[in-house]
Amino acid sequence: LPEYQGMGYAKLALMLTLPDSINQELTPEYTKTEIQAVKEEVEAEHQKTDLEVMMEGLNPDIEKIESDLDKAIYQLIHDNPDLLVEYIEISASAERIGMPIGDVDIYEMLAPNEQAMYSTRLQGIGRMFLSIKDQEHITLTNVRTNEKQTYYVQEARDYLQKMIGNMTGSRTEDIWMALFNEEFPVKEEPKAPETAKTLNAKPISEPKKSKVTKAPEKSAPKNEKPAKTLNAEAHKNEMENNAPKDIGQQPDQEAVGQQDTEETTEEAKGQQDSVCTGATISGEPVPATVENTDYEDKAAALARDISYFVANRKWTDVKYAADELAQTASMLMMTKEDN
Known about the structure:
alpha+beta; 5-stranded mixed sheet; 13 helices
């Protein structure tokens, strides 16, 4: 297809995994790394079910905003404080020369590399891609529904002016507090490495800004109590301390809290070994001693545990329980062979 000429195989391979609504916003100017970042944003959004997104509820501040573009810009400014700082500087410069802020000013602010794609996530709605490919248009794409809307850059400029109002002469921290009712985030400047002095040294140019800006990771809501979990090392040490002396662990075993019976030798066949399950509920280890004749009950219990963990998205526990179930199945097969 003509629109994909110049993309290259590596880029096209990534784009095959993306919906057409997103691919339509990508051009040959996007690098493989930038397209990979877009892919990661799409995958991150689809990890949540529609029910989970609905249960998030809408942000009251965003819910009262009418236009979808305005909602996205409000969240985009919150996610990228540097954009607010830059807009205030543009406004101050325009006031000094007695000129209004133009569409070109907003275009250059949002797309310093002439093209840009921002990912911003609206609570209770999902991720939105705000893409800019020319000086006149902004496209808004809903990652969950693939719905696409096209706006003019002028509409973004109008909302920013409405959003900031007459506060352009105020301190950035005060404007931020008025907009979002929270303290302005302080960005820690990285310390420059000490270098040897050189004569006629050429200044190092700043790296080119990526055309793709990802949505920041959001922490869990304060009213949501996460299930208790043990870190891997603490969990492993606890299970090792409680393990019977005659039970050994494989030295390269990575599953946390999992204790395996020693390999059955020809001389030890018929002996009954006890096993501790690695399954956990809400992060709490649930040791259980079983006889060989109880392996079928143990397998059924582990299967129920796996179902519970999958339903509650406890993927680490799913892995541990699945490993233990596989070992239990092996023991069952050995027991049946002996019989």
